[in-house]
Write a structure and sequence with these properties.
The protein has 169 residues and is of the alpha+beta class. It is built from five helices and eight strands, in the order E-H-E-E-E-H-E-E-E-E-H-H-H. The strands form four sheets. It has a two-stranded parallel ribbon.
């Protein structure tokens, strides 16, 4: 009999263990996880009437493969959806919650009006993001991390916010 050990009970470890079981049902799979719960960095904290996602951006439920994976893992019933009527994302900054502008998707605006009215970004940052809607795209000769993209797009605003909160930039 094949014996397989999967180290880590985050989403990647859970998916790897599932894949082994699907491909080799006879295999004995041992999942090793140091923390008392599975899921890795994905979790939800409920405080002061808010649900705060503490891990990565969870996943976009419009993507069928993420939901299918949750179903295969037996986790579909544990998913917590967005509360209807309040599907806005907020960013905590300067002791206030600022709504992310409507049409702001994956760190880029898709509409100018809400971006202009937002209190979250400086006018320089708003101009830079607005130009991203009309400037031609450069060549994509390498992959770019989300952090590098955000830094290039929001360099000044990110530096100002980090400085205001005592973080190194």
């Amino acid at each position: 009999m094949m014996r397989v050990a999967v180290v880590g009970g985050g989403i990647a470890g859970l998916a790897a263990a599932l894949r082994v079981r699907e491909r080799r049902p006879e295999a004995a799979v041992t999942l090793l996880e140091a923390s008392p719960r599975l899921g890795g960095t994905i979790s939800t904290l409920h405080t002061q009437g808010f649900a705060i996602e503490t891990g990565p951006d969870s996943f976009i439920t419009d993507k069928p493969w993420a939901l299918a994976l949750c179903e295969r893992l037996g986790l579909a019933g544990d998913l917590i959806g967005t509360r209807e009527g309040d599907r806005r994302t907020h960013v905590a900054w300067e002791d206030r919650l600022h709504p992310l502008p409507e049409g702001f998707l994956l760190l880029a605006p898709t509409a100018l009006g809400p971006l202009v009215r937002s209190s979250l970004f400086s006018w320089t940052g708003k101009l830079r993001m607005g130009l991203d809607l009309v400037l031609p795209r450069g060549p994509r000769d390498r992959d770019e991390s989300l952090a590098a993209f955000a830094e290039a797009l929001l360099a000044e605003d990110a530096a100002l916010h980090a400085h205001a909160h005592g973080h190194a930039s």
